[in-house]
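Human:
Care to share another protein and its fold?

Assistant:
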Amino acid sequence: MKTVVIDFHDFNDSKSVHEFLAARLEFPDYYGKNLDALYDVLTTDIKDVNILVLPTGRDWEQRMIKVFTDAAAENPYFSVGVKR
C-alpha cells in the first residue's frame, strides 16, 4: 500500500494540495482540482493508497479531510489517517 503524507503546514491553500495529490497519485489529466473531483477520483480511480494527514486546523483543510474520510468509507482500497 502506498502512503502519502499531507502535512498541511507545507501548503498555503487547497489549490496547492490538489496539485500535489494529482502529481503524487497520478490523477487523470481531466481531474478538476476541486472537492467534488477529488471525491470522484478517490472513490473510482485509487487503489491501495493510504493518506496520512497532518492538519493545522484551517477551515479549507477540514473540508478536504471530510472528503478523504467520506471517500475512504466508500472505497475499501483507500484509507486515511489524521494525526492530531
